[in-house]
Each structure stands twice: as C-alpha cells, then as structure tokens.
Design brief:
The protein has 1 helix and 6 strands, in the order βββββαβ. A 5-stranded mixed barrel has the order 1-2-3-5-4.
Length: 107
C-alpha cells in the first residue's frame, strides 16, 4: 500500500479528544479509508500528516504503515504527495496514540 493514493474520511479531527478515551488528544487528523476493510471489521484507520488544520476529508499518499504487535490491525500514515517524513518524525507525531501500543513503522 505504500505509495498508493487514498482518501481518508476524518472522524477524529485535529484538536479533538478520543470519544471513549478522554486522555487521547488528537494533535493530527485521524480517520479511515472507506472501502478497505481492516482485520477488526472496520474501515482501515489512517493518520494524516502534513496538514495543519482540521479537515473532514483528505486525499494523499500512504507513506508508512504502523504495525502493532499487540493489536490485530495496522494503521496507515497518509501525507500530501510532495511531503516527506522520516521514521522519527512520524513516530513523534503519532506518539499521542501509539504510546499505548507495541508498534513499529514500515516505510
């Protein structure tokens, strides 16, 4: 999937809190890719990097995959076509949620 263009529907916009876990604050936009089913039976989740304001939808490229050793689903990292991020930059931006999991990034 890395390098593929996808459209993410944002259901947790930048600046909001997780609906069930109020200690998780979304410093970036987060949502799902409709039409791609993940192992948990829901649409594929995706972090959006490189967007500095809350959005409802975003089309960009999958630049990385977050694999979780202690969860059944992966998370995609999506960014604008012209933006690049290092593994360390991605880790820093998704830490707000990934700190609760044993995860690693594939690029």
């Amino acid at each position: 999937m890395i390098g593929k263009t996808v459209t993410v529907t944002v259901d947790r916009a930048m600046g909001t809190y997780h609906p069930k876990h109020r200690d998780i604050y979304y410093s970036i936009n987060y949502g799902y890719v409709e039409g791609v089913m993940s192992p948990d039976g829901e649409w594929q989740d995706a972090y959006i990097l490189g967007v500095s304001k809350p959005v409802k939808e975003f089309t960009g490229k999958v630049i990385a995959i977050v694999k979780r050793n202690d969860d059944i689903e992966d998370k995609w990292v999506v960014a604008p076509d012209n933006m690049k991020f290092t593994k360390q930059e991605i880790e820093k931006q998704i830490y707000f949620q990934e700190k609760y999991f044993d995860s690693y990034i594939i690029m």
